[in-house]
Amino acid sequence: MSEPTVVSRPAARVDALDKVRGAARYVDDLELPGMLHCKVVTSAHPHAEVHSVDVSLALASAGVFAVLTARDVPGENQIGVVTADQPLLVERRARMLADRIALVAADTPEHALEAARKVKVEYRPLPVIADTDQALAAGAARIHDSGNLLAKKQVVRGDLGAGWAAAKLVLERTFTTGYQEHAYLETNGVLAVPEQNGALTVYASAQCPFYIQKAVARVLGKDLASIRCVQATTGGAFGGKEDYPSEPAACAALLAMKTGRPVKLVYQRSEDIRWSSKRHPIRTQHRIGFDGEGRITACEVKLHCDAGAYNGLSTVVSERANASAPGPYRAENVRVDTYVVYTNNLFGGAFRGFGAPQVTFAMEAQLDEAAERLGLSPAEIRRRNLLRVGDATATGQRLPESVGALECLEKAVERSRFEEKRALLAEHNRKSPHLKKGIGLACCMYGCCLHAGGQFLEGSGSLVQVRPDGSVNVAIGGTELGQGAFTVVAQLAAEELGCELSKVHVSPVSTELVPDSGPTVASRTTVMSGNAVLDAARQIKSRMLEVAAQKLDAPQGRLEARGGDFLLAGGLRRLSFCEVAKACYERKVNLTAEGWFAPPRKEWNEALGLGEAYSVYCFATQVAEVTVDLRSGRVTVDRVTAAHDVGKAINPAALKGQVEGGVVQGLGYALMEELQLSEGKCLNPNFTDYLIPSSADAPEVEVVLVEHPWSLGPFGAKGVGEPALIPVAAAVANAVSFALGHRFDRLPLTPERVLLTLEDSRGTT
Question: Which of 597, 622, 655 is at the close of a domain?
């Protein structure tokens, strides 16, 4: 096989020029004649009965075209993506402050806001459930008729009793992680446009146009074929635009169908933070046993996940946390119990890492503590436990290939000079009274693509068309969120077809062009959309090779397509890609093909949480180096070394950029991002009080790409988007613990928390 000419090489992003020139059109840039603007009236209470809604004053307000309530929903008043527990518009009971009561459409945003303020609602407040313990307490007010326990997940494997009996060291600790806001640059936004014959088009900043299509059809009482969703240029998402955009989309769609005009809804930043989904708060009760050599003998974990007022994707997120809790380690005696609980808080949803950062923080802290107790280095205790090819995961899934966990550890340790620096920094800390330095590492394992429980969604389509002039159109179901997905599929198409990369054009994602391809989540887009594109490209290439062979009067088996030419073996005779495309059209050969990819079915025992949880796993080790100022409590991350098993690097430059971005976002989760809630109300819905990392906080990041190809991946590729973030907070926390000689069990490590924790620990010693 010839060396690739496009794949595994850096490539300029296909969407870069439009974005840097300001030509890219986001939802808020879209304007249509007669367009109206939407404002949403939300509940004044986190938990209340709604007795009446009076919209008369709002309807009489200047510029108003419509004011809608639950009684105006023509279809099903329901937008729950997994569970039918979430009305679009409240009928009788509000369960969180973000619950929608009424929708206003007016000629300007100002008129819509003025009218929204005139909607009068009569409430009877109900008891507020603010945490999972309160929700599960005997006699607690029920948020839903089914009770406050939304779901229970588990992993039950091996013999815990035997594992505890074999343990020489047992550690038990509770870890707490809170909310994280996605902080995408562009807030949620949609534009709903009525079309002929009762159809509707939605332009959305979104990760899954197919979810929007289903939600809008459901609410309007229409069939899927009459609803089209097109992804507008999207300014970041990180999971926050997976299921959530269905809500604003359904709001705008209702008003558009009612008024017969285009309706735009774009959130203000404070609205977005107060209303949209977040990373779930999870409390992790963690008990783990080790033998005298530092090998895991037993692992028992209990997770309490705060779903908020509605399920959203909470049961799906908890499924991944449940399976990921024991980490990338051999653990034959395991029990994980995960409780997903309703409260009156903001509801949780997808966020980069999808439940794994929370449990990784706990597991990696326990390993560091065990290493210290057993006289081992943190690297060595992981070396003795990491999964290898042929091992089984905590769910009992055998790993026949593509297991780069150990190489990631070794590369990260070597490149960071981890062992050497531990000794040097310990000596520094003995001499420095105020500035303490630390180094810590963390490993992770992330199931690429969807969990077995969601495999009914696990298929992706593509549409590839070669034009008579040799240019190529590619359409996929995976969305471009800034991660470089369109560039990767363009590279894959160019490599497989044998054309130049500059000839490939990727179309905006539209539900009209490709079949339902599921959401752009779970680090699945390169695998799913990439394989779908390869499938279509191979069909087309085989037809082009047949024509090229005829024109060159040569056996088809002796031809190859690469670098913009169809070549006879040895390169003695050739035809350009454009020449062959033209010849195909002259001979009426079809150069359009639909592609499809779905991985093999996974066997899964839901009752025990055992079996093939994911199709393949990504592995990573990150090493963080920190400085802690004891006078202020401030933690500075100086350097991160990140080694990631990506299967095969399709675009190495883009992969490194993904890891660098994930590191900075994970740093925010580790050190500063803390959404404050009181009785269900968000107290800091802005970037003045909710702090996110700036460029000044970004550390030096060295990215090491480790390649253990996966046989089903496109050219062997897996994913990297989410593993880039998952181990960051754990590595930073371990580095801070090393620097200060104290184990931290709550995130984020804000200056106040660092100082108060140290004061408390001194007071108890």
Answer: 597
Angle, helices 751-763 vs 728-740, to 10°: value is: 40
Are 522 and 582 contained in the same domain?
yes
Of the CA atoms within 13 Å of residue 210, those in its CB half-sphere come to: 17
For residue 54, list its beta bridge partners: 120
- pLDDT tens string 126-175: 999 999 999 999 999 999 999 999 999 999 999 999 999 999 999 999 99
Which residue matches tokens 């107790």?
373
* Largest Cα–Cα separation, the chain: 88
Contact 330, 290 (CB under 8 A): no
Three-state DSSP state, 1: coil
Whether residue 93 is found in the same domain as residue 241: yes
- Mean local confidence (pLDDT), 416-429: 98
State in Å, rounded, how far the first CA of the chain is from the last one: 66
Measured distance CA(406)–CA(197) in Å, rounded = 59
Q: Are residues 630 and 725 in the same domain?
A: yes
Specify whether 64 is located in the same domain as 209: yes
Q: Which residues pair with 618 in a beta bridge?
A: 446
Task: For residues 68 and 205, state if they share a domain.
Answer: yes
My answer on whether 444 and 503 are in the same domain is: no
Q: Contact 284/303 with Cβ under 8 angstroms? A: yes
Domain final position from 227, 245, 275:
275
Burial of 600 (0-12, 13-18, 19+ CB in 10 A): exposed
Instruction: State how many domains the chain has.
Output: 3
In what side-by-side order are the strands of the sheet with 296-308?
Answer: 149-157, 334-342, 296-308, 282-290, 169-177
Q: Domain holding 193: CATH number?
A: 3.30.365.10
Residue range(s) defining the domain that contains residue 440:
356-392+402-450+614-763
Amino acid at 122: E
pTM for this predicted structure: 0.96
In sequence order, what are the beta bridge partners of 48?
Answer: 94, 125
CA distance 472 to 745: 53
Residue type, 647: G
pLDDT in tens, 662-715: 999 999 999 999 999 999 999 999 999 999 999 999 999 999 999 999 999 999
Q: Give, to the nearest 10 degrees, the angle between helix 728-740 and helix 652-671.
A: 50
Q: How far is CA 16 from the centre of its chain?
A: 22
Residues 586 and 642 grouped into a single domain: no
Cis amide bond preceding 33, omega within 30 = no
Q: Rounded distance, CA 472 to CA 499, Å?
A: 9
Q: Strand pairing of 93-94 and 120-125?
A: unpaired
Strand partners, 437: 627
pLDDT value of position 413: 98
Q: CA nearest 172: which of 37, 287, 334?
A: 287
Examine the domain organization and report whether 434 and 463 are in the same domain.
Answer: no
